[in-house]
Every structure is written in C-alpha cells, then in structure tokens.
Amino acid sequence: MRSTPQELAFALRSPTSGPLAAVVCALADLFEDPSFNEGHRALLSQLLAGGEVPQFLAERAAERLTSFASSLEDLHRQVLSDDARGLFDDLPSIEAPRLRRVV
Fold first, then answer.
1. How far is CA 94 from each of CA 65, 91, 97, 100, rounded to the nearest angstrom?
2. What is the pTM of this model?
C-alpha cells in the first residue's frame, strides 16, 4: 500500500516523527541533487525494501558522513581565516546581467 503525500504530512504532525522528518528532508535534498543518480536511487530502493540497514553498512556510512563533515569544517575554517582572501580567486566569475530599456 502506497501512502499519499497527505498521509505522510499527517504522520509528520506526530510528536515522535522527528526521525521521519529528518529522512524526508534528506530525501528531498537528494532528489534535487544532480549527482544522486539512478544507480543511487536503485541502491536506496533495495535498502528500503530490505527493511534494515546491515551493521557493517551503517558503520561505513557513518565513516563517510564523518569524513564529509570534516571536509566541510576544513572549508569553513579556510573561508573564515585571514588567508581566505585568495581562496576563491580561481573560480570563474559570473557577469551580472545588464538591463536594457525596451520601448
């Protein structure tokens, strides 16, 4: 049985739905991310169909998430440091659009 979006929204009103809300937010972000491809979606579907996350897989995922968080912290420190002045100099600049007056 498939749940409708309205049923899911109703379930999110529950005081115990914090973990469900976190998963829905993560999925919403994933579906917007172009790097989350069909292969990833198939793997996620298989995982959900299995009804559990094997311990070794949960551990690998936690390691990867920790590594990702660490790289974000490093980038954050670099951006806030005094040496950050030249950090973004090599990035391509975006030219602001010019407005034209059309009569």
1. 31, 9, 9, 18
2. 0.56
Residues 46/62, Cβ–Cβ less than 8 Å: no
pLDDT, one tens digit per residue, over 59-70 is 999 999 899 899
Distance CA 84, CA 87 (A): 5
Enumerate residues 6+ apart whose C-beta is below 8 A from 78: 84, 87
The pLDDT tens digits for 13-22 are 989 999 889 9
Per this entry, what is the length of the chain? 103
In tens, the pLDDT along 51-61 reads 999 999 999 99
79, 87 contact by CB (below 8 A): yes
> d(Cα 46, Cα 38) in Å, to the nearest integer?
12
| Domains of the chain, residue spans | 1-52, 53-85
Q: What is the percent of the chain where pLDDT is above 90?
A: 31
